[in-house]
Amino acid sequence: MYVMDIMDAQPILPSKERIAARFGRAAGLCESAAGVNMEIVKRVAVVARDEMAEGQLWADLGSGTGKLAENLRAVSAAARLLCLDLAFPPLRRAMQAGRAALAVNADIDDLPFRDGSLHGALAVSVLQWLSAPEKALSGVAKALKPEGALCFAAYVDGAFTELVETRTRMGLPQVIWLPTVSELLMAFDIAGFDVQAERIEHFDRVQRFPDAASALGNLSRLGATATSGRLLNRSELAELYKDYTLIFGKKGTVPLTYRSIIGTVRKRA
């Protein structure tokens, strides 16, 4: 673990190390990613703003390059924010940009924090990639103070349906497994969080891209193409792009569906 003071019929899921490696190699691309995912980041920043208070210590779990921290500073400068990620290159970019009080290179399944040391935590587009989210969430709950808040966003079943359908039609194995809303909310409950329906919002968007390569490139920046098996070769990838466009293309663009839930859960007292 590295700690740096930086100033103020499901497919087999890929390993966390493989996902982290993908994010590490694409740190620059993730930095420039916009569209729907950045809209989600900004929404979580607004949700978290109402939970944070001056002098508190919060952790952004799976922080990437610190874009959430940057957006939080734009709406509230109250709390100190620590960035944690398993991939080191994105953290280095966060460090260079001065986006958080601390940066920690560590695993969300093995948090290096003392019990009850955090006032709150954030997790954006992270939980859906975990094979056992309740395990990570139990660790988060231990690190939080009583009634500490976890503000989150997670992609759920029904997202990225275009890629799923295209691979199905091509007879290719699926590379994305996403939890249902019920499964994710159950994981929060098992881990020791109170879940209130009125604090959970559903977020659905369809973003259109000029071509299939652009759509899947955007998806890659979310870690959704870090597969557990072999990568497609060049001809297979070209065929995937072609079929994606034939099935879903319309008026010179192709769609990509995003479905997530955003909200706040609170550690049981």
User: Might you state the CATH topology name?
Assistant: Rossmann fold
How many individual β-strands? 10
- What class would the helix/strand composition place it in? alpha/beta
Number of domains: 1
Largest sheet: 9 strands, mixed
H-E string: EHHHEHEHEEHEEHHEEHHE
Unreliable parts: 1-14
What's the alpha carbon Rg, rounded to whole Å?
Answer: 18 Å
Helix tally equals: 10
CATH superfamily: Vaccinia Virus protein VP39
What is the chains' assembly state? single chain
> What is the name of the CATH architecture?
3-Layer(aba) Sandwich
Tell me the span between the first and last alpha carbons.
30 Å
Summed over residues and divided by their number, the pLDDT gives a mean of: 85
Helix content: 25-40%
Principal-axis shape equals: globular
Provide the CATH top-level class: Alpha Beta
**How much of the polypeptide forms β-strand, as a percent range?**
25-35%
Give the topology, please.
Elements: E1 2-5, H1 16-25, H2 27-32, H3 35-49, E2 57-61, H4 67-75, E3 80-85, H5 88-97, E4 102-105, E5 118-124, H6 133-143, E6 144-155, E7 157-160, H7 161-170, H8 181-191, E8 193-194, E9 200-209, H9 212-220, H10 234-248, E10 254-267
Helix pairs in contact: 3-4, 6-8, 7-10
State the gist of this model.
With 269 residues, this protein is an alpha/beta fold. It is 39% helix and 25% strand.
